[in-house]
Design brief:
The mean pLDDT is about 85. The protein has 15 helices and 5 strands. A 5-stranded parallel β-sheet has the order 2-1-3-4-5, with helices on both faces. The longest helix has about 60 residues. By secondary structure, it is of the alpha/beta class.
Length: about 350
């Protein structure tokens, strides 16, 4: 980077000479005798740290220079001291409306110009340095957040895999639930703005969906792996995986953001609740069910229907879809069902792609 530059813009040579003499020892001094020449110099030089700008000039006046700088977003980067004649009416107010750093009136005193100029240069450079440090800190924070997120993702997948391993599943159930959940949420965000979902929330809910069945770690093998239909007593035990999961999540709460923990808790506890109140564990009704849990619920039911289990063979995609839409697998909200209908082809495609490959 070359020597710092000060641009002096004044149609009177004597003024340029006086001002130039103040700064020539410490800066490279550029001179322009009208606004158009000043704009050309501004465009051609990158090291200008201050502009001393006259108002009344031929070709293009000082406000024309300010207009040019405003159009090119330069007034925040390069400070301007406007030097006006006493006969210029309302120039101060107009100049400050552009965002100039200072206004001085002719005749000026060199030592005052020098002091103000150096203070302003220092102020702007400190501001610039602070902005650069803030950008660096923001980048560091984003890098740290990315690393924490990746570590969290690993832990989530690891915990989820433990459940799948115990359930003797292929290891892809959790991944499919995340796919299905994300797809549903994107349709919900697009077509149902009343829920106020943001892309960040969509991402957090999709990640949280992986922990929906974490409570099954606390269910005995005799019940979890039973190939036949569970007895009423066994089913009551199985239902406790929702509350067991919340107890497990509580142990990890301090390592998560409040919002992410909320989604994990909602999904873990309420993904078996149903719109008509016939779900479990709390028999929530209608909008009492958090939308995060309701979305994961339909994704979980669909995946259970189209996937092989120890107690059943998989259903075809269209049959599984019809069973859910017809209420054969419990009642879901009209909004969630509409999103499911919109996502139908996406769901079918995911299942078909998975069938083409071995993920074991």
């Amino acid at each position: 980077m070359g020597k710092q530059q000060i641009l002096i813009v004044d149609d009177e040579e004597v003024n340029r000479m006086i001002l130039g003499g103040i700064f020539e020892d410490d800066y490279e001094v550029l001179e322009a005798e009208n606004g158009q020449d000043a704009n050309d110099l501004i465009a051609a030089n990158e090291n200008i740290v201050l502009i001393l700008l006259d108002v009344v000039m031929p070709v293009l006046n000082g406000f024309g220079v300010l207009e040019y700088m405003q159009q090119h977003d330069l007034l925040e980067k390069i400070p301007v001291i406007l030097i006006t004649g006493e006969t210029v009416i309302d120039s101060d107010d107009q100049a400050y409306s552009y965002g100039v750093a200072d206004v001085m009136h002719k005749p000026f005193y060199p030592h005052i110009v020098e002091r103000r100029a150096k203070n302003i240069i220092e102020l702007y450079q400190n501001k610039h340095n602070m902005e650069e440090r803030l950008k660096e800190q923001e980048l560091e924070i984003r890098t740290q957040e990315k690393k924490i997120r990746e570590n969290n993702e690993f832990m989530i997948d690891a915990l989820s895999s433990v459940v799948e391993f115990r359930s003797l599943e292929t290891g892809e159930h959790v991944r499919r639930i995340k796919y299905f959940t994300r797809i549903m949420l994107k349709y919900l965000m697009k077509y149902f703005p009343k829920y106020g979902l943001t892309p960040t929330q969509v991402d957090e809910i999709a990640r949280a969906s992986a922990l929906h069945d974490i409570g099954k770690i606390g269910i005995s093998d005799a019940i979890l792996l039973k190939p036949g239909k569970l007895t009423p007593e066994e089913f009551e035990v199985m239902k406790t995986h929702t509350t067991i999961g919340c107890e497990i999540l509580e142990k990890f709460r301090e390592n998560q953001t409040d919002e992410f923990y909320k989604y994990c808790y909602e999904i873990c506890r309420y993904h078996h609740e149903r719109w008509d109140g016939k779900g479990y564990p709390d028999q929530l009704v209608g909008d009492e069910i958090p939308i995060s849990a309701h979305i994961v619920a339909i994704a979980d039911v669909y995946d259970a229907l189209v996937s092989p289990r120890v107690y059943k063979s998989p259903y075809a995609n269209n049959i599984a879809y019809d069973m859910i839409m017809n209420g054969e697998c419990g009642q879901f909200s009209p909004d969630v069902l509409e999103c499911f209908a919109l996502a139908k082809e996406d769901f079918f495609n995911i299942v078909e792609v998975i069938k083409m490959f071995s993920f074991s």
